[in-house]
Every structure is written in C-alpha cells, then in structure tokens.
C-alpha cells in the first residue's frame, strides 16, 4: 500500500491555509473546507494492521524490549493531534535508546523524506540497532544525520513556509554541526545565545509558521511579549543546564534537544471534532474548543470576546533524564507519582537548582501569571508525569496573594487525565521532557 506524505504550508500570497498531500511527487492542494476529508484520508492510508500503538502520544504503553521499527506514515499520523508531535518525538527517543529501524528507509536516498518533520527527524537521529545493522547502513545513517543537522543553517526557509518549524541540537555530535548557530552563536556549548537574542529568534519562529505575529492579548502591554520570550528562553536553557547529562552525571549517549513551533488556525479547529467538545477530548483540545465562537442561547448574555486567528504552539523537547529524575536522582523509579510531581514543581521554582549554581529559574507562578494574561496553556510530560494548566474562559482557578499584595495563580499543575485534579495518574515512564505552550494569536 502506498503512503501519503503530509506537509502543511501557509500560502502568504492569498492568506489561505492549505494542505499539501504528496504521493510520489504528485501534489494535491485542498482548501480548509476539505481539511476533515484529507485528515480521514490520511488515517485510512496510514492504517496498518500492525500499527505501532506505542507511538500514540496519549496511550498507556511505551515500547520496551527489542529495538522497534517505525513507518513514516504511522509516525506522521500519530503526530497530527494537538500537541502530539513533540510527544511522539519523545516516545521515539524513549523506544530508540537501543536503536531504531526506519522500516521504509532501507537506503540512504529514502532517508531524505524523514527530515521534514520534528518526529521523523528525531527518529532519523536515533542510532541503528547494533545487532542487526551492517557497517554500510550505520555509515549511511550517520551521514544523513550530519546532513540533516548541517542543513539547519538555512533555517527558517521562508520560501516554503509551513505550519510547523523546528531546530534540533545533537550534543553527542561534533558541535560544529551538532549545535545550530541560531541557538549557539559560535557553535560551542559555551555560546548559548542570551535571553535578549532569544527575542528575534522567537519572532522568526513565529513568522515561520503563523500568518499573524502578535498574541491576541498583546494589547495588554509589551511586557507580555517579553514574558513569553523569557519563558521560552528559560525553558530551553533548562535543557542546556540539565538535559545533556544523566542523573548520575554521565553524558546522555544520544542527546537530542530542540525547539518546535506549530500554528493551528481557528478555521481548522472549527472544522474538526475539537469544536464538538467530545468527552474523549484531551485538555489541550478542550482548551482550544473554548475559543470557538458560538451563538448564545436565547436569553443568555454572552461575554464579548476578541476574535482569534489561531493558536501558536511552542514546545521544547530533550532526551535527558527528565525533570523528576534530575531532581530526585537515580532512585526516581521507586518514587511514587505524587513525589515525582512535587519534584517537577520544584524544578520550576525560582532560585532552586540541581547544578549547585545560583538559581535562575523564571518561577512557575510567573510563568502561570504570564499565561493567565495571555489566556494560554502549558503542558509538561516528563518521567511518569503528564500535567497541564490552562487559562481559557470561565475557569476561575485558585490564586494566592504574594508579598506585594498582587494575586497570582496558585503554583500547581493539574493531571492530564483527571482534568481538574492535582493528584497524578499513572503514566508510562518516558525519556526526557517535553514542555509545550499554546497561545491565542491575533484577531482575524
């Protein structure tokens, strides 16, 4: 069965979001009204009786044991839902620690299709299993990895803007191509760019994927844009400080870190099942559904809301030991989920660090306060924890008063499965950390 390669692009000339489906070099363009049909087509084409269910970012199983194989179509299908692609990449890292087989990339030329998406690029960055790979295959995989990393020097390629963009760091590779110059100015571990330099990087990341460049609530003050940049910088800097080595201090053998952005248009959301607010919806999907404009019921006075063009996702991913593991040490596997969540919260708190240096954390309450003003969303998936917090409409979550007299959101994260509970559910342990943010973007 032939498989479709799904590529999403934004056509700036006529401001029409289109889906581009590529089948062995043949391109078909679909208008937004055909989005649901194209999504169904993707699911049908990529369906496989042996489909790797462990790729489902919200499933209760993670691949363990012998090195798995991955099909590109399955990978892209699993990456479709809201916030899914970075989580799929995390599962690939978790399963690929002993090597990964790209089942439809048995020769070097076939590898070229794997670099266009975060999840598939991360899969291509995994080593081949040592037991069933010949020297030629290993050489081809390494050569492609080098080419993929070197090609990032052209990022972002605005000649073909899509609704996703990413940059990867490979700390186990030579820094002259393992560390992109956009994040490390001299391509050395010591040359991480400053918070001030992150502002133009974030602007480029936004303009590469979003037809609008300002958060919907930016009129509340330029401080919000600065806060969003600071949150982004501090989250990535945390991967630089804590995700390049294991909890025992040894280097991460196959260290992949990255930043990722994606744009979800409001038209896309309105045409999808997200707008129906199904009971099976994830917290992220329920959050997006809050912004879908609906006619008020007779006799009900609706609160005026600004129009939203779409939502910007900013995700930071790493293959390190994970936030709970870093805080608790190697014994984190024996620690219950409540203690792991407490460790994750500790990692966010300002002034607390595991490096022995002065703490430089932005502070979770400041992150939440900025997200509250932006009506945003945060998700954290690390070790056996999956938690979130959202600030859409009509929630009235608890707040506390700080020494200045200001009221700020309570410093807590909610369980992904239980919704409004802070008691963590059981999740399969994953490698590394994914921190994702969703922010409503400008008026239509």
Helical fraction: 25-40%
Q: How large is the share of residues in beta strands?
A: 15-25%
CATH structural class of the domain at 218-296 and 304-441? Alpha Beta
The topology string of helices and strands comes to: EEEHEHHEHHHEHHHEHHEHHHEEEEEE
Question: Which structural class matches the secondary elements?
Answer: alpha+beta
> In terms of quaternary structure, what is this?
single chain
Could you list some keywords that capture this structure?
three-stranded antiparallel beta sheet, 14 helices, Heat Shock Protein 90, alpha+beta, 14 strands
Short description:
The protein has a domain of 217 residues: Heat Shock Protein 90. 31% of the residues lie in helices and 19% in strands. β1 and β2 form a beta hairpin.
Structure description:
With 444 residues, this protein is of the alpha+beta class. It has a domain at 218-296 and 304-441: Heat Shock Protein 90, CATH 3.30.565. The protein is 31% helix and 19% strand. The chain is built from 14 helices and 14 strands. Strands 6-7-8-14-9-10-13 form a 7-stranded antiparallel sheet, with helices on both faces. A hairpin with a 2-residue loop joins β2 (16-23) and β3. The longest helix has 20 residues, at 223-242. The two termini are 41 Å apart. The model is unreliable at 1-50 and 351-361 (pLDDT under 50).
């Amino acid at each position: 069965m032939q498989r479709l390669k799904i590529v999403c692009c934004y056509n700036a000339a006529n401001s029409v979001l289109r889906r581009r489906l590529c089948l062995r070099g043949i391109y078909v363009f679909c208008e937004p009204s055909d989005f649901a049909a194209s999504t169904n087509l993707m699911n049908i084409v990529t369906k496989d009786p042996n489909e790797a269910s462990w790729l489902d970012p919200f499933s209760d199983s993670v691949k363990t044991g012998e090195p798995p194989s991955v099909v590109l179509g399955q990978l892209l299908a699993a990456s479709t839902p809201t916030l899914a692609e970075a989580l799929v990449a995390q599962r690939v890292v978790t399963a690929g620690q002993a090597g990964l087989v790209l089942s439809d990339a048995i020769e070097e030329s076939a590898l070229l299709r794997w670099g266009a998406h975060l999840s598939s690029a991360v899969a291509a960055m995994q080593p081949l299993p040592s037991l069933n790979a010949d020297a030629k295959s290993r050489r081809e995989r390494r050569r492609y990895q080098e080419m993929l990393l070197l090609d990032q020097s052209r990022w972002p390629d605005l000649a073909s803007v899509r609704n996703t963009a990413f940059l990867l760091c490979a700390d186990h590779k030579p820094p002259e191509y393992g560390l992109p110059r956009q994040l490390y100015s001299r391509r050395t571990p010591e040359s991480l760019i400053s918070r001030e330099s992150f502002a133009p990087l974030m602007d480029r990341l936004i303009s590469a994927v979003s037809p609008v460049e300002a958060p919907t609530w930016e009129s509340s003050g330029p401080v919000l844009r600065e806060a969003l940049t600071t949150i982004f910088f501090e989250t990535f800097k945390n991967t630089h400080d804590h995700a390049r080595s294991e909890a025992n201090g040894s280097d991460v053998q196959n260290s992949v870190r990255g930043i990722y952005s994606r744009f979800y248009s409001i038209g896309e959301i309105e045409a999808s099942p997200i707008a129906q607010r199904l009971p099976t919806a994830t917290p992220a999907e329920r959050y997006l559904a809050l912004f879908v404009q609906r006619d008020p019921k007779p006799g009900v006075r609706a609160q005026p809301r600004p129009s939203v063009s779409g939502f910007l996702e900013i995700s930071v991913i790493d293959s390190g030991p994970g936030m709970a593991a870093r805080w608790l040490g190697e014994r984190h596997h024996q620690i219950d989920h409540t203690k792991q969540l407490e460790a994750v919260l500790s990692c966010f708190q300002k002034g607390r660090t595991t490096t022995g240096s002065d703490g430089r954390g932005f502070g979770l309450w400041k992150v939440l306060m900025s997200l509250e003003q932006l009506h945003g969303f945060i998700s954290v998936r690390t070790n056996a924890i999956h938690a979130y917090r959202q600030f859409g409409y009509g929630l009235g979550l608890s707040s506390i008063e700080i020494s200045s007299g200001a009221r700020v959101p309570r410093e807590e994260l909610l369980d992904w499965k239980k919704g409004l509970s802070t008691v963590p559910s059981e999740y399969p342990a994953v490698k590394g950390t994914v921190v994702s943010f969703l922010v409503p973007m400008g008026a239509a």
